[in-house]
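U., I forgot to send this yesterday:
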Amino acid sequence: MNERTERHRSGAALLLAALVTAAGLLVSAAAAELASAQTLVPVGHTVGIKLFSKGVLVVKLAEGNTPARACGLAVGDVIVQCGGSAVTSTEQFRTLIQDAGGEAARLEVRRGAKTLDLEVTADGSGGSYAIGAWIRDSMAGIGTMTFYDPESNTFGALGHGVTDVDTAALMPFSSGAILPSEVKAVKRGQPGAAGELKGDFDLTGDTGTLYANTGGGVFGTLTDQELIERLGQNALPVAENEQVHTGKATILANVDGDEVKEYEIEITKILNTDPEGRNLLITVTDPELLEKTGGIVQGMSGSPILQDGRLAGAVTHVLLGDPTRGYGLLIRNMLKSA
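Result:
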């Protein structure tokens, strides 16, 4: 390698570091703006959400004395490095295991707040090398956009984090996007069986990029200019926690095609003000929504709750035993988690 090439690469590395730092500062500034926002535009439209993890998540271990079990891997672990290389996808991790060729490979693993160093030796008896673990690197589905902030061009959705379907662990976030969505059908909720919004979304048609997956929702910035212009109006005041009370309220929900409508609900109890908790107990009272969905269904998570002319919170969960009832998150708590 000559001196000129070395200088060029060093300069490129410095530029990349500067760009990464700048992006981080922009995200931090947007999050700070959201935390203190006084007005936001309630949205209530479904969006497709795709999320890619940082590393790969262990979702299941094979039975028996497998290499994964022998080295100490557990369900819920996140493998972030293998043999000194950053793990970026399930396919790439499998390639790293094959490249190790049955030799011991060092794994850097995150388990909750801890970082572990493990060493695994793959089994090649099946014709290719394997460690006996099922892993996942991405998820996609439908949720509802709660709000848009024209001042920072940021949005929040879901009112809860994207968690792995098998482990219930919060997906470790690397990158993600939202996509336009349209509701095609509704599976009505029944006692003991959650309903579901069924919709179409184009995995290649990003309308915004995500910057965070937290216990209070997913957050990002819009990139679709037409959507930005359409959402950049009709802002409402943001309710402080103490302004939200039991009694009548409404939600904005998209349960048919492309249409967002306002439906009546009742806030029956203020449970707590835990920043990432289930703060509100709500009951759907609107006859039209009850007829269409049976109450709260999957895909409605993030539907904004309005009360007294303010944005008060977001729908987060349904009670399985009674789909007319569910939980909500206070909007201030959602903003603090961004």
